[in-house]
Automatic annotation (TrEMBL):
Family: Belongs to the HyuE racemase family.
A Pfam family hit: Asp_Glu_race
InterPro entries for the chain: Asp/Glu/hydantoin_racemase, Iso_Racemase_Enz_sf
Protein's name according to its UniProt entry: Aspartate/glutamate racemase family protein
Species of provenance: Streptomyces edwardsiae
């Protein structure tokens, strides 16, 4: 039986992801009952340790176990730094468990886009996103060519939506990516710039939280009414 309001847990490592992810679920998957779980030391402790230690992986798995034992029907891990723990979680629990940007990458690769741009405001986000995107190519689009262009604008990380969009657009043009067919936001914190960036570039701009919400909605309520259109695009 399909639950009318399935419980979806969101585990966050930064407070801003809480708001952005919840807004995405309100827009794309309003039927879900959203449960936010925040451990705001996860990123700092990983940085201090120089990466994910055995203890930090166990800590994340304890958080995942907590929401699963409490009845979560699906989980989105919004922190990309802990994405590798998802593989372990999938072997332990038989419910959908998503990495932060996994659904966005899959949607982009499955789409008609030949040249995809990845934009970010923090340097580590760029190689991490590209590595995840390239890792999915063999399974999602093995027979179609893909060109990836990246752009970084640290100014976008300290700006509001419209101003951040201008910084990202300028960085993308400077990187030679103005002709990209689609743009992927490598961080949840850039989601407020999505619509303005689409307007400036005239191409679809995809965000991780929205894509994850749509993916989980399709898995948990496959016969429900359609959600809003996936990408933001200029008129």
């Amino acid at each position: 039986m399909i639950e009318p309001r399935p419980l979806v847990a969101l585990i966050h490592a930064v407070p801003t992801a809480h708001r952005i992810a919840e807004e995405a679920f309100t827009r794309e998957f309003p039927q879900a009952t959203v449960w936010n779980v925040l451990d705001d030391r996860l990123l700092d402790d990983a940085r201090d340790a120089g990466g994910l230690t055995v203890a930090l992986r166990r800590r994340m798995l304890r958080l995942i176990g907590h929401v699963m034992d409490s009845g979560a029907r699906a989980l989105l891990l919004t922190c990309s730094s802990y994405g590798e723990v998802v593989d372990t979680a999938r072997s332990l629990w038989d419910v959908p468990v998503l990495k932060s940007d996994e659904a966005m990458f899959q949607a982009a690769l499955a789409g008609p886009y030949r040249r995809i741009a990845v934009v970010a405001s923090t340097p580590p986000a760029v190689p991490a996103a590209v590595a995840q995107l390239e890792a999915l190519v063999p399974s999602v689009r093995p027979d179609r060519p893909l060109d990836i262009v990246t752009a970084l604008s640290e100014e976008a990380g300290t700006s509001d939506g419209a101003e951040a969009a201008r910084h990202l657009a300028a960085a993308l043009r400077a990187a030679g990516g103005a002709d990209a067919d689609a743009v992927l936001l490598a961080q949840y914190s850039l989601t407020p710039a999505r619509d303005a960036l689409a307007g400036l570039l005239g191409v679809p701009v995809l965000d991780g939280a929205g894509a994850a919400a749509r993916e989980l909605r399709g898995l948990l309520i496959p016969d429900g009414p359609p959600a809003s259109p996936a990408p933001a695009v200029a008129p």
